[in-house]
Specification:
Blueprint: E1 11-16, E2 21-27, H1 33-37, H2 47-65, E3 70-82, E4 91-102, E5 105-114, E6 117-130, H3 134-147, H4 156-161
Antiparallel strand pairs: 1-2, 2-4, 3-6, 4-5, 5-6
């Protein structure tokens, strides 16, 4: 993970678009400027970043479902619970299930576990819109390749070569 750049998903480890499920993995870094203030002498992952991890995992499920044709933006968090403290170097597994996609929004339920123990969970709502510009779309497709989004869930033209010519 690169907390300073909000890259919270290291890789996709399971994806079943038909069933509306995804699992991702990420390791909290040993060191980060985030930990300098949260908290000095007792570094822990902020709860708001746990929500971001869940939001990105659900977002990747939505992107895969839509073959990267539209972009999900987090618009609402409901029923969020942080159940445990997350220290540096912790390996996390995040799962999300798609509850709704259509009419310009999507809803996912997500949870984070570490060592089989539930760390956090939330219900997340997204606004799903046409990509605002080609730069963002190209960056998302490049990231999709980096984290292992299966080529079957990328737009046909970009699946093989990683280009992002159209919007």
């Amino acid at each position: 993970m690169r907390l300073e750049y909000f890259q919270m998903v290291d890789r996709i480890i399971e994806l079943d678009v038909g069933a509306g499920r995804i699992a991702t993995a990420g390791q909290v870094p040993d060191r980060s400027p985030v930990f300098e203030g949260h908290f000095p002498g007792y570094p822990i992952l902020p709860g708001v970043l746990m929500i971001e991890i869940m939001a990105q995992t659900g977002g990747w499920l939505i992107l895969a479902t839509l073959r990267c044709a539209r972009m999900p933006f987090l618009i609402q968090v409901e029923k969020a619970k942080m159940r445990s403290i997350v220290p540096p170097a912790q390996d996390l597994r995040t799962e999300a299930t798609l509850l709704h996609e259509g009419s310009g929004y999507a809803v996912a339920k997500a949870s984070i576990t570490a060592g089989g123990k539930k760390i956090a969970d939330a219900e997340l709502r997204y606004g799903v819109v046409v990509f605002p510009n080609p730069t963002l779309r190209a960056a998302m497709i490049a990231t999709a390749h980096r984290i292992g989004l299966a080529e079957a869930f990328l737009p046909p033209a970009e699946a093989a070569d990683g280009s992002a010519d159209g919007a």
